[in-house]
């Protein structure tokens, strides 16, 4: 694996690069484990390295979507606006369990606490709905990038927030109209959004959002949407 100097990067974020992500093939079958660092180096991504991830979309009782702006300490896509929480299940037994994506949903509960300070009892895995998966690739800069099969997870709950400033620099709840305005600003390069959030917003998000009380018709655990 290539050597990359991380001396100029945020110390806390560099420590997280040692976490072990789940390596998968293009059909989301587990083939091994590798560090978060190696999974996010473009040099490895260009050789086909692919890992499992998730994106959480959390709505409150007013049907507003919780967005976050990633901190400038983040190694990939700093300062970008994105959906509620985006991260990875880790290569350990509780998060490797695949039945009904329970491992991924446990990972989402863990990261909602770590990033947004949401108490774990407020977002139990059984209240996190797994809709479908998307497969995408994107470069953050010349060194770092993403190549993931991303589990799309929905939650509707009023929650308590206490964000970690090392992860998140701002957050807000938005209506559909407000998100469309944000996306318009991003298209004019007035703000930055993450590539996965842009892909999901341009394809599926508003259709799902219109049907929060009837998401079952959109559940598809067979297909992996290649974006």
Give a structural overview:
There is one protein chain. The protein has 227 residues and is α+β, with helices and mostly antiparallel strands. Helix content is 26%, strand content 28%. It contains eight helices and ten strands. It has a five-stranded mixed beta sheet with strand order 6-3-8-7-10, with helices on one face. The mean pLDDT is 94.
Observed structural traits:
10 strands, single chain, 3-stranded antiparallel beta sheet, 26% helix, alpha+beta
Largest sheet entry: 5 strands, mixed
* Integer average pLDDT: 94
Poorly predicted segments: none
Shape: globular
* DSSP strand tally: 10
N-to-C order of helices and strands: HEEHHEEEEHHEEEHHHE
Helix content: 25-40%
* Rg estimate, integer Å: 17 Å
> Beta-strand percentage?
25-35%
Question: How are the SSEs ordered, and which strands pair?
Answer:
Layout: H1 11-16, E1 20-24, E2 30-35, H2 36-39, H3 42-45, E3 51-59, E4 65-70, E5 81-82, E6 85-87, H4 93-96, H5 102-116, E7 129-139, E8 145-156, E9 168-174, H6 176-187, H7 195-203, H8 205-209, E10 224-226
Parallel strand pairs: 3-8, 7-10
Antiparallel strand pairs: 1-2, 3-6, 4-5, 4-9, 7-8
């Amino acid at each position: 694996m290539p050597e990359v100097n991380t001396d100029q990067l945020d110390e806390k974020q560099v420590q997280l690069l040692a976490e072990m992500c789940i390596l998968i093939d293009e059909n989301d079958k587990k083939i091994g484990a590798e560090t978060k660092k190696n999974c996010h180096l473009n040099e490895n991504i260009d050789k086909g390295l692919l890992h499992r991830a998730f994106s959480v979309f959390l709505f409150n009782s007013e049907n507003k979507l919780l967005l976050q702006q990633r901190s400038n300490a983040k190694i990939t896509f700093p300062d970008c606006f994105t959906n509620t929480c985006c991260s990875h299940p880790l290569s350990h037994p509780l998060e490797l369990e695949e039945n009904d994506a329970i491992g991924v949903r446990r990972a989402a509960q863990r990261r909602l606490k770590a990033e947004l300070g949401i108490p774990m009892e407020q977002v139990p895995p059984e209240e996190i709905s797994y809709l479908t998966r998307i497969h995408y690739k994107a470069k953050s800069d010349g060194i770092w990038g993403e190549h993931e099969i991303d589990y799309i997870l929905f939650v509707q709950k009023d929650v308590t927030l206490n964000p970690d400033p090392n992860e998140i620099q701002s957050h807000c709840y938005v209506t559909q109209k407000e998100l469309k305005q944000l996306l318009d600003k991003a298209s004019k390069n007035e703000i930055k959004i993450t590539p996965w959030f842009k892909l999901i917003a341009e394809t599926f998000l508003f259709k799902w959002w219109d049907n929060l009380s009837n998401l079952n018709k959109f559940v598809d655990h067979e297909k992996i949407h290649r974006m």
